[in-house]
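Record type: monomer structure entry
Structure origin: computed from sequence
Chain ID: A
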Amino acid sequence: MCTYNGAKYLPEQLKSIADQRVSVDELVVCDDRSKDDTIEIIKSFAATSKFPVRIHVNEENLGSTRNFEKCLSLCEGDIIFLCDQDDRWRNDKVDKQLAYLDAHPELDAVFSDAEKIDDYSKPTGGTIWQEIEFNEARQQLWRSGRSHEILFNGFVVTGATLAIRKSCLKRLMPFPTHVQDLIHDAWIAMVLSLEAKIDFIPDTLISYRIHSSQQVGFGNKVEKVQLSDRFKRDRKQKLMPLEEKADKLHELYLLLRALPFVPREKLIKLYLSQKHFYTRAALPENRWKRFTPVLSQLLRGYYRFSSKDWWLPAIGDLLE
């Protein structure tokens, strides 16, 4: 568990760990220099805990990804359950994920869905999989061996639901920190998906808290650009996100290509995707001169890298 100013919700999470049907063997906490009562709450919990609680306070603030990297490296068990400070585990989470990994020794990790709760621990309706549209069709695609293609297009695996084997960490660490949005859980899921070593349990094994102060997660949504604004905004406003997307995909491609155990053929769509976004970001000001490159991308089917409704970004590139 990684903590940072988590006093408000921490007692509920700690209780849910203590109430597991199958007990954990240890709780390892790395605190990123909290300024509230986080450490006092954990020490109080540790005083009556049936399992050891090991608390480490960082000498300096590491940030979420580096803190999780440190915490994972300090764990001694064969199976590690990643844990956020503000959620709540269902009492069969450990039991179900341990059983799944025991039944599938070829896998290194398993994740699950989660119900969404609010500041007051009340369900808000729906789950995180519903929010990100990890529906039956995409689940079938995942299990057909194309999980990496899903992850090239966005996040699916929530670290707070993840259980992994410690033995795989030597292939995963150190975690990269220079690619925007590529936090620890995204990197773990991406690499293991390319090895076909991660699967899921279609059940809500945690309650995932949505609140304004969370550092990472499903909190705030990006507002969609309104149709009325599309033709008034400066063209640089349209092209900048495309270039940023291309840069992120390019950096991810370079990282994954450098891993000797990743099959190169699985990176082809990632390579084509970053080329597609670079092409879109470089479309000329003159609308007539955009026609040929847009048509070329359309005929090759590359606009599917931009959206499942592929015709919308294509029309936007021609007209905006």
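Annotation 1: The chain has two domains: 2-209, 227-319.
Annotation 2: The two ends are 46 Å apart (CA to CA).
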